[in-house]
Amino acid sequence: QVQLVESGGGLVQAGGSLRLSCTASGRTLTGYAMAWFRQITGKERKLVAQISWSGQTTYYADSMKGRATISRDNAKNTVYLQMNNLKPEDTAVYYCATPEYPGTTHDFAYWGQGTQVTVSS
């Protein structure tokens, strides 16, 4: 059973930075795409950033372009999301996810429990 555990969330002032981590157990992340989503209370979960299995291709939602960097360390079975210049509208629960099958970039089957990010103005 694949388990994803996020960490690194917290309370930060606007303009500050946070680095989220997501560590997997039960399966290697090598060969699998990884993604970060966020969900604002009362709204649907949305993709924030995604990284390919090789780490060579990344995608960012428009709202995070220029402020976020997704990276992975396959040796540690961990993916990161560095977020800078945070804004109050970035306040949300952040989830990491991975597909069931290697090489795919959608159909995320496994999700972490989420980590709360709160940005104060």
Topology summary:
Blueprint: E1 3-7, E2 10-13, E3 18-25, E4 34-39, E5 46-51, E6 58-60, E7 68-73, E8 78-83, E9 92-99, E10 108-111, E11 115-120
Parallel strand pairs: 2-11
Antiparallel strand pairs: 1-3, 3-8, 4-5, 4-9, 5-6, 7-8, 9-10, 9-11
Number of strands: 11
Distance between the termini: 40 Å
Strand content: over 45%
Shape type: globular
From the helix content, strand content and strand pairing, which structural class follows?
A: mainly beta
Please estimate the helix content. under 10%
Q: Would you identify the regions where 5 or more consecutive residues have pLDDT less than 50?
A: none
Instruction: Report the average pLDDT across residues.
Output: 95
Gyration radius from CA atoms, angstroms: 13 Å
* Quaternary assembly: single chain
- Helix count, per DSSP? 0
Describe the structure.
The chain has strands at residues 3-7, 10-13, 18-25, 34-39, 46-51, 58-60, 68-73, 78-83, 92-99, 108-111, 115-120. The protein is an all-beta fold and 121 residues long. The strands form 2 sheets. Strands 2, 4, 5, 6, 9, 10 and 11 form a 7-stranded mixed β-sheet that branches. Strands 1-3-8-7 form a 4-stranded antiparallel β-sheet, with no helix packed on it. A hairpin with a 6-residue loop joins strand 5 and strand 6. The termini are far apart.
Short note summarizing the structure:
With 121 residues, the chain is mainly β. It is 0% helix and 51% strand.
Based on the model shown, name its key terms:
121 residues; 11 strands; four-stranded antiparallel β-sheet; seven-stranded mixed β-sheet; mainly beta
